[in-house]
Amino acid sequence: MNSILQELGPPLISILLFLGLNGLFVAGEVSLLKLRFSHFNPELLERLRGERPLRALLDAPDWAIRVMRLGTVLSILGYALSIIPLIEKGLDGLEAALFGGETALSLVVAFLIAVTLHYLVAEWVARRLGLRFPRECLRLAALPTRLVAIITRPFIAPLEWLGNRFFALMPTSSEAAPSFDLLDIEAQIELMGDVSASRTFSVTQRILKNTLRLRELVVADVLLPRNQVRFFNLRDPIEDNLAIARESGHTRFPLCDGDLDRCLGLIHIKDLFRANLPPNRIDLKRLRRDIIRVDSEETLEEALAKLLAHKMHMALVIDEFRGTEGVLTLEIILEQMVGEIRDEFDADEEVLIQASTPDSTDALVSGLARIHELGDRFGITLEHEEVSTLGGLITTELGRIPEKGEVLEIEGLHIEVTEVDDTRVIEARVRRLDQPKDPTT
Q: What does DSSP say about strands 232-233 and 324-329: parallel, antiparallel, or unpaired?
């Protein structure tokens, strides 16, 4: 008995040690992500920063995550080297009795046992402990993380350099590798609670994910295009400008001298009512408010920060030549986070995608329809890096404004332009190429 313990004791201790370290690093990573990114409690973060071992992890989460993952890899390697020989030895007697000699059974069983044990102890249990007790798990993981950082310090810088060089060689990237993988953060958001227990929480998850994606979108992706912007023109009679306000139902309008490239400010409808003057005595220049300008290539996150800092609901979007591309509103940004916002004034809004008949396989689609909504309508994945609407997709594909009746095929869709003007596609008939044409149309 003593000889068996002496023979099996060290491998078992080694297995438990590496399993524990693996679980500790996994729990520490989940805890750090939850506390640093998913727990919107500034007071809690400040209290945690007061603890010296945790301050370094919370202030440099990118560094801490990299070290923890490196520790996880080292723990898995140590665990594998410890458990596989032990299981092989334990199966030798069974193989000899059943098969009369060694077979591949030991390798298969060893692999299954090792993976199962690792998943249950070092992944499944560790992640849930990290989510349920984030502060405690992060405290326990702080010391091993610092030790791994010290031991591996000579290797981390060269590995990071190689990683950045590899990322830079990829055809879709001209920058260094991003510091954080957004999928990691999203995964932790999904695990913050039991989605099946609360529909409200699933809505919160969706909003959090959309908010994190704001930095991936630029203003040009969502702006209201120039040709759709209604504005007050100083060169027009005040009655014409008021008619625009009544017709559109909007509350804010750029004030321009001829066109959007000469925008002088912003007119708010409330200011017109407060002036309490007859139309012929209204001076739009005196009522105008300031308007800010944002670059079309700025991220939505940066644009949102500017709008909030200036306490404004609307900004003019300019291109690299200082020309006006359109406008960006706070509502547009919020819709990227929470979904479409509709009120009583939107009840009669134009239907952008409308089936020709109840049973038809095609649809009349406005040029303003979003391509992702069009993809959802026809059950396909439809994405484009440069444009977001059907009209933009058609003109980009052709390199010009199409003619009425022109037909083209894009991303599995048959598109026939049915209405167009000098500057944009107004409407098109669309159907999937793998669907038969509706005989009623």
A: unpaired
Nearby residues of 47 by Cβ (< 8 Å), 6 or more positions away: none
CA angle, 117 then 122 then 128, to 5°: 120
Amino acid 201: pLDDT = 54
d(CA 110, CA 84): 6
Q: What tokens appear for 241 in the block? A: 């400008």
Per-residue pLDDT of 115-153, as tens digits, reads 888 888 888 888 888 888 888 888 899 999 989 888 888
Q: Could you tell me which CATH class the domain 353-432 is placed in?
A: alpha beta
User: pLDDT tens digits for 153-190?
Assistant: 887 778 777 877 776 776 644 444 454 444 455 555 55
Q: Return d(Cα 40, Cα 340) in angstroms, integer.
A: 25
Torsion of CA 189, 124, 14, 140, to 10 degrees: 40
Eight-class DSSP state of 268: E
Measure the CA–CA gap between 426 and 423, rounded to whole angstroms: 9
Q: What is the DSSP letter of 11?
A: H
As a CATH number, domain 219-346 is: 3.10.580.10
At residue 217, the 3 state secondary structure works out as: coil
Site of tokens 């992890």: 57
Surface-to-core class of residue 254, CB atoms within 10 Å of its CB (0-12 exposed, 13-18 middle, 19+ buried):
buried
What is the token pair recorded at 93?
């007697």
Sign of the CA dihedral with 38 first, then 40, 46, and 47 last: negative
| Angle ∠(362,363,368) on CA atoms, nearest 5 | 145
SS3 245: helix
Structure pTM? 0.50
